[in-house]
Specification:
globular, 5 helices, about 40% helix, 5-stranded parallel beta sheet, alpha/beta
């Protein structure tokens, strides 16, 4: 069965690039900010992974991760962060069980694909 990934990003060019990269391997669903993602999550089956930006309007990626962590329905969905400030986001690993690391922007396609596979392998074991 094809795994489903929710990509949350407010920058349309980044969102399109990530969706294009992942669409050959996964079913990709997108949201423009954390609030849209939470709405989608409430109305659909859970994705296998969420990839999110941190700095977004309406609801930031950090606020979304906190909401996911606080809700038992979503707390087991792994999250990868993509950010131009990964060093600032290092505290996430200590605070959120569903956090699986940060990738620096601009994204390197091979690093993103490798990180996703590592998350899926970790969840399978």
């Amino acid at each position: 069965m094809t795994k489903r990934i929710l990509v949350v990003e407010d920058d349309q060019s980044t969102l399109k690039a990530v969706k294009f990269l992942l669409s050959d391997y996964y079913k990709v669903v997108t949201a423009g900010n954390g609030a849209e993602a939470m709405e989608w999550l409430s109305d659909n089956d859970l994705p296998d992974l969420i990839i999110t930006d941190i700095e977004m309007p309406r609801m930031s990626g950090l606020e979304m991760i906190e909401a996911l962590d606080d809700d038992l329905r979503f707390s087991q969905v792994p999250v990868i962060v993509m950010s131009s400030n990964c060093y600032k986001d290092s505290c996430l690993e200590r605070e959120y069980a569903n956090y699986y690391g940060c990738l620096d922007k601009p994204l390197v396609p091979s690093e993103l694909l490798l990180k996703i596979e590592k998350v899926f392998l970790a969840k399978a074991s």
